[in-house]
Amino acid sequence: RTPGVFAAVDIGASSGRVMLGRVSGEGVELETVHRFPNGVVERDGGLRWDFDALYAEVLEGLRAAATVAAVQGERIASIGIDTWAVDYGLVDDAGKLVAQPFSYRDDRSRTAVAHVHGTLDPARLYQTTGLQFLQFNTIYQLATEQDLDGLHALLIPDLIAFLLTGVRGTEATNASTTGLFDAVAGEWATEFFTALGLRKDLFPPLIQPGEAYGDLLPDVAAAVGLPAETTVVAVGSHDTASAVAAVPAGNEAFAYISSGTWSLVGLELKHPVLTEASREANFTNERGVDGTIRYLRNVGGLWLLSECQRAWAGEGFQPELSALLAAAAALPADGPQINADDPGFIAPDNMPGRIRAAVRRAGADLGDDPAAITRCIMDSLAAGYARTITAAERLADRPVEVVHVVGGGSQNALLCQLTANATGKPVIAGPVEATALGNVLVQARAAGAATGGLPHLREIVAAGTTLRRYEPLVSVHEGYVP
Ligand code: LFR
């Protein structure tokens, strides 16, 4: 039986791609058929996503996918979409997007926090939603909207699915990042909509990973060259949910770091942890595939470095990433550190200057040597990961034996080694494309081309991936191979 191939649309904060995934007993083979850049743009008085351009790239990617599949004589069984979380577009009754969606990096939402917390006590919000406090959670963004009459909110992957199929749904893993979702019931927290004067049907009904939104609209199908009966299937549409589903863990005693623009660091649990101690430590209980709980914190991520690289490029300095990391690895340990998850690093621009200022405030000094700044970022991230994993073990009462790093950061040998050193636990790095793999596997299961729960899907990932193991060392120099 040929189950066909699956198209995965995976859009991150700095780039997007459309991939074809072929699933077999030997793992998932991924083929990138289209890649495009992404980034926030300053537009209409705020930091936004150029959604129209992204959607055009999605169509371009599906067209490429259709062409590649046709050449191979394959049929694309379904399409799955994942992106970053939290952000949404507003469409009117005619289905028209009324503005380009705001980015979570725009700081308008910060000004709405006090208003929301004046109406809903943060402790009460946490007891129900279990969501970590981030100034950009959807609930704060919505509180800045002037007039939502006659409008429908669609999270970014749901917005793409809507344009492709005409069907409105809110995929549950992503809904859990809004601040308006009940972590225990797995339903919308309707009382919070009411308290904030939001319509209860502002978002469409929930849809679970593995369920279908619907088939492609006839004109979309014709435009991309796919059969009109191609189904758009909901996956873990929050990219982190898809990535965690593809962590190649063999048993329960693991922590994961989904490492990209952000580092999402935590555990997979069956039940949320909604204690006051958990709230104080700002751990989140986001929903994973198959109703699991992603118990994690957002620790700063490679955004810190990519923003520095952007700044350095502006000054004409553009080293290869590998050269920068090698120079950073050659520097001594115990250099200055920053708190990588300080909200002061959320907005773009002048990252090297902001990092230097943070180090200065902490009473140390960091010159403007890019290698030293890079080393500071790596040390700070590793320290943040170690703190977070230790806290998660304690708060969830779950010992961790091994740390899995997936996503782009799994290729960063310096960061992986420093993470092993800081946590004192072995680090298993890979796969790089965990998000796309999780996306494809949930589609494959919905189509009957894979069976079983997450442990089984993880075996398929492990079968098809070369993993690299890092043992904790006293320093990065001892036995360290970059
Ligand atoms: C990672 C991610 C995080 C979320 C952040 C903003 O790409 O989805 O999980 O906190 O982006 O949406």
UniProtKB/TrEMBL annotation:
Q: Which residues form the Carbohydrate kinase FGGY C-terminal domain?
A: 255-447
Transmembrane segments in this chain: where? Answer: none
Carbohydrate kinase FGGY N-terminal domain location: 7-244
Q: Which SUPFAM superfamilies match?
A: Actin-like ATPase domain (SSF53067)
Q: Can you tell me which family this protein belongs to?
A: Belongs to the FGGY kinase family.
Sorted UniProt keywords: ATP-binding, Disulfide bond, Kinase, Nucleotide-binding, Rhamnose metabolism, Transferase
Taxonomically, the superkingdom here is Bacteria
Q: Which Gene3D superfamilies match?
A: 3.30.420.40
Question: Which CDD domains did the record assign?
Answer: ASKHA_NBD_FGGY_RhaB-like
GO molecular-function annotation terms?
transferase activity
EC number(s) for this protein? 2.7.1.-
Source organism:
Arthrobacter sedimenti
What is the name of the protein in this document?
Answer: Rhamnulokinase family protein
